[in-house]
Amino acid sequence: MIRQWLQSFPHLFYPHVCEGCGTDTLYEHQFLCSRCVHRLPETKFFAAAGNPVEKLFYGRCDVTAAGAAFYFTKHSLLQHLLMQLKYRGNREAGYFLGRMMGRVLAASGRFDAVDLLVPLPLNPRREFERGYNQASLLCRGISETWHKPVLGGRPSSGSGSPIPKPGRTG
User: Fold this and answer.
1) According to the 3-state scheme, what is the secondary structure of 59-112?
2) Strand, helix or coil at 7?
3) Per-position pLDDT tens, the chain of length 170
4) Which of 67, 115, 136, 140 would bridge with 46, disulfide CB 3.0–4.6 Å?
5) Alpha-carbon gap, residue 124 to 44, rounded angstroms
6) Rounded distance between C-alpha atoms, residue 10 and residue 7, angstroms
7) H helices then E strands: how many in the chain?
């Protein structure tokens, strides 16, 4: 009883609430309550060949499979989560969205040939300003649920280029 009280006391000053609706009826390690998770508009594109995302690449580049986990609409819960990640420094939003994408990717089976997740590198100045790379957060979240390794961060060469000087062209 006392242990539970001591664990709950900090929540009086730093409440753990759902990022979507603000309710405090969620488990300790949840980011969204189950009601808000069900409000996210899933596309089911990862499981379907010839989906609208794949069609965007037709005639532009050779893509084996593509998809989107959620539909994006203005003033939606998804837009709120993306704004939290991009402009409010909410790293947990990136991990959460990555974990959701990882579950969908694992369930689809169409991407089983993927061996490695590669986060897009961010300009070092931007990464310093933000304090993190959003793509890296998403990849780490995907990796947690899909169990694919993530390519590590870029080497600290000072030039911003991951390729050693003798190997660069141009």
Assistant:
1) CCCCCCCCCCCECCCCCCHHHHHHHHHHHCCCHHHHHHHHHHHHHHHHHHCCCC
2) helix
3) 787 767 666 666 767 788 888 888 777 778 899 999 999 999 999 999 999 999 999 999 999 999 999 999 999 999 999 999 999 999 999 999 999 999 999 999 999 999 999 999 889 998 888 889 999 999 999 999 999 999 984 443 334 434 444 444 44
4) 67
5) 35
6) 7
7) 7, 0
**CA distances, 90 to each of 15, 19, 36, 131 (Å):** 16, 10, 17, 11
Strand partners, 150: 117
User: Rounded CA gap, 74 and 98, in Å?
Assistant: 20
Taking the C-alpha atoms of residue 136 and residue 21, their distance in angstroms, rounded to an integer, is 26
Residue 105 in contact with residue 111, Cβ under 8 Å?
yes
Which residue has 């169990």 as its token pair? 147
What is the residue whose two structure tokens read 């603000």?
Answer: 22
DSSP-derived secondary structure letter, 75: T
Cβ-Cβ contacts under 8 Å for 55 (sequence gap 6 or more)? none
